[in-house]
Amino acid sequence: MVVSELVTNAHKCAPGPVLLDLRITGYTVEVVVWDSDPTLPIAWAADGTRADRVRRRSALWPGAQ
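and the corresponding structure tokens:
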């Protein structure tokens, strides 16, 4: 679900292509989403939305930092 949200947001906001790099090593999953918009994204405060719940749950996964 996290990857879907990241890629969807990049696709909606970026003027050009979106790239996804997904790496799995043991209990670690690294997700990198790149888009062609030169503007840095704005980090929004947690507000109890679905995305916020996903972030909190993902922190409980084994190996999460």
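(Above: one complete record from the training split.) The CA atoms of residues 23 and 30 lie 5 Å apart.
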